[in-house]
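Morning. Coffee machine broken again, so started the prediction first thing and wrote up yesterday's gels while waiting. Chain of 281 residues, entered below exactly as on the submission form.
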Amino acid sequence: MSLFFLQLYGELWKLFARKRTYLGFAVFIALEIVILLLFQLPKVQRAWRHLLEEAGYGFEQYFSGTTLAFQIVLWTTTLLGGLYCALVAGDIVAKEAEDGTLRMALCRPVSRVRLLAVKYLVCVIYTFALAFFIGLSALVVGIARQGTGGFFAFQPLEKLFVIYDFGPGLLRYIGFLPPLALSLLSVTSLAFMLSCCNIKPATATICTLSYFIADMIFRGIPYFESIKHWFITTHTESWYNVLRSPMPWQRMIEDYAYLLGVDATFVLVGVVIFSSRDFKS
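Came back before lunch.
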């Protein structure tokens, strides 16, 4: 086990020593600041005031840092968070195979399964780190600009409209970060599987994003409502349920059991493909 953790440390060092690994973190900081500035425009605030006051709530109380932070996470994480998870996971095996460094690694007395297990664990750590960074940085930026106050979460596509005081709202906000990371892990797992194939890193990333964007499109077609549960993105949106009161535990357990099963399938297929590849020539 000590050698396993030593190998894991080496893979983490390789990942976080690359400057491009931090691209996603930097982009999200910039994007959060831009979105926050746009929320200060008079026309935007009038729209928010109308929405809140029409529902019978005070604008000054609920147009708060946690409300803005949720909106930042809501509109950026699905696509941009998935993009950077796909970039890292699609790169982690395919890039080393392309550069030829993977052949040297396979010369060592380490099984291919263990090598992939370490690399996938690194991808999982990165996914959780990115999800928590997005959520917490948005919260810090939002509270720094707008202060504390009630938490108003609104997502019409998921029929979500909830109001909380600051304390309970903050707990709900922190509570959806682990499920959010688990949702992003499905993107990571598919990109990892494709990275194990004999393709370029960019191809693995593009194919992953194409699949999930197509999945989102199909899920949004009204005629497919009866088969909506077939699409992965139907289940990856389950992190919204943390904000509902009462929280639908059974639905969340079913959604994440489905996603973890899909993730395990992706990883196992990737292991089988990788184990059958020839790196001698």
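The first strand starts at residue 151 and ends at 155. Going to sketch it on the whiteboard this afternoon.
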